[in-house]
Amino acid sequence: xxxxxxxxxxxxxxxxxxxxxxxxxxxxxxxxxxxxxxxxxxxxxxxxxxxxxxxxxxxxxxxxxxxxxxxxxxxxxxxxxxxxxxxxxxxxxxxxxxxxxxxxxxxxxxxxxxxxxxxxxxxxxxxxxxxxxxxxxxxxxxxxxxxxxxxxxxxxxxxxxxxxxxxxxxxxxxxxxxxxxxxxxxxxxxxxxxxxxxxxxxxxxxxxxxxxxxxxxxxxxxxxxxxxxxxxxxxxxxxxxxxxxxxxxxxxxxxxxxxxxxxxxxxxxxxxxxxxxxxxxxxxxxxxxxxxxxxxxxxxxxxxxxxxxxxxxxxxxxxxxxxxxxxxxxxxxxxxxxxxxxxxxxxxxxxxxxxxxxxxxxxxxxxxxxxxxxxxxxxxxxxxxxxxx
Length: 389
Ligand SMILES: Cc1ncc(COP(=O)(O)O)c(C=O)c1O
What we know:
- The protein is about 40% helix and about 15% strand.
- It contains 13 helices and 15 strands.
- The chain has a 7-stranded mixed beta sheet, sandwiched between helices. A 4-stranded antiparallel beta sheet has the order 11-12-15-14, with helices on one face.
């Protein structure tokens, strides 16, 4: 099968599958709405994943199942091949999802009231995980350049360490600002954390969505101690509904504490279908993924063209990675609540900026471009209409 433009252009009709992105949105905003929000893709998962799931479903019992060495080796092989990162089976802990993995890192490495460093704007559940576990937000907001390119504020990170923060959560590559952190930036961050003895949990769920000449660098390749990386097939191969993710940690002591917390929290993983899908994707998904990345690269260029032409006052952050575009619409003078009401009336839904940080992101929207290309000009046309209404 060819994973070419024609394949991805065909997209997928997802209505009626209890799909949050389409069905949830239509229930709230009407049948004609174009959903460009939650981060999953309007493409079928690789055929090998479909086949593996059908094969497993065809055997008519789904009792307790082992996660085999081959399942873990599929993850290891994929990371070795695609990211030049190697780790052992022992270093892997199975999880139901990455956000659970973040919360478990907080619970295992900090105490109630401790500061946890995040870098706003960032994927909302970072902040929510700190709040729901009774820890304290220690925000070191990213610095925004005029062209919408963000960098880390390392002085702020160090200040939060000095104030006593006990953990840092990194989003790498970064949702929503589309940065792929360079080895130098990550190294500089690690030096600070190392100086203060602050452990790091690195959410690397977007690792596979990187556009040349940028290169993803895993924290696993930069540090042995005090680092946990959270990875999954879910974002890359569109299998988030199967609830399977992995924590990879080389540091024995941190891993021991993490697993104790997994155990004590009653978090149980090993969904038969999730594991089967991840293995099939990791073993046989490369061609599909290469085709997808070429297609998304085209969507990324198309989005930049559309924004520049239709919304001259908007600033789209340069998209180095992820399939999520971050658009600064502050020049149009609306709050996120106003933007969302207007866009909904114009028949399109984005994620409002404040989901990623109330202080840093009023007047921003995030757009998901993992969809057939034709939806992008249509979404921008509707956005323009919303701004002019
Ligand atoms: C940075 C980041 N982490 C985690 C998640 C969610 O992962 P999971 O469904 O495995 O909890 C997302 C989904 O958009 C994300 O963007």
